[in-house]
Amino acid sequence: MEKDRDQAYCATPGPIAPAGPAAPGGAAEGPPYAECVLCREPTEYPEATKGATLCPVCAWQEAGRTACSG
Length: 70
Prior knowledge:
Helices cover 30% and strands 11% of the residues. It has helices spanning 2-10, 56-67, and strands at residues 33-35, 42-46. Strand 1 and strand 2 (42-46) form a beta hairpin.
């Protein structure tokens, strides 16, 4: 019973579709945003941000993989 619950918690979900209408070309509106290093979607960070930038979906999935890797 406990093992089934752990497997369901650690399962990686599929991609999540954004809510609402998308901007033309799939880009976020506003200043130029950095691309996610995994899926190449715009992130919440400006282009000048240093380091590996992840979109919210990839950041959430990466956190889940890291938490369940122990």
